[in-house]
Amino acid sequence: MQEFKVLFEAYGADYQSTMNRFMGNEALYLKLLDMLFQDTNLQRLGAALDANDLSNAFAAAHTLKGVVGNMGLTPLYNAVCAIVEPLRKREQCDDYPALYHAVQVEFQKADAFRASLKGGGEA
After folding, report:
1. Taking the CB of residue 43, how many other CB atoms lie within 10 A of it?
2. CATH of region 2-117
3. Phi, psi of 119 (to 5 degrees)
4. Which pLDDT does position 119 carry in this prediction?
5. Hey, where are the domains in the chain?
6. How far apart are CA 1 and CA 96, in angstroms?
7. CA distance 76 to 110
8. CA angle, residues 37, 24, 80, in degrees to nearest 5
9. Global confidence as pTM
10. Lower CB count within 10 Å: N or C terminus of the chain?
11. pLDDT value of residue 122
12. pLDDT tens digits for 20-64?
């Protein structure tokens, strides 16, 4: 579907590479994209950061990184990568609240992208 491709690229993602991973099945992509918004790793990341539990924060962020990377959600992926790397090193970092906020903002944009793919809004 050409409209799907246009919306996908307007969001800032590589349609072709992502759809290659999904064998061109846009319905499957949407089904799995819906599952991302049922996942609890974003909340787990926030809770772990609030508790200064860098190990669990890393686990949640790393899981998110893998999922959003496979889904081709490039803007969200980039935001998650920015928090994963200092967490990987278990660095104490004053930037964690701002980095987490950036992930939350991109998560909301990804949700708007999802709605646009379903015909319910704009990316």
Report:
1. 10
2. 1.20.120
3. 85, 15
4. 84
5. 2-117
6. 39
7. 7
8. 35
9. 0.90
10. N
11. 46
12. 999 999 999 999 999 999 999 999 999 999 999 999 999 999 999
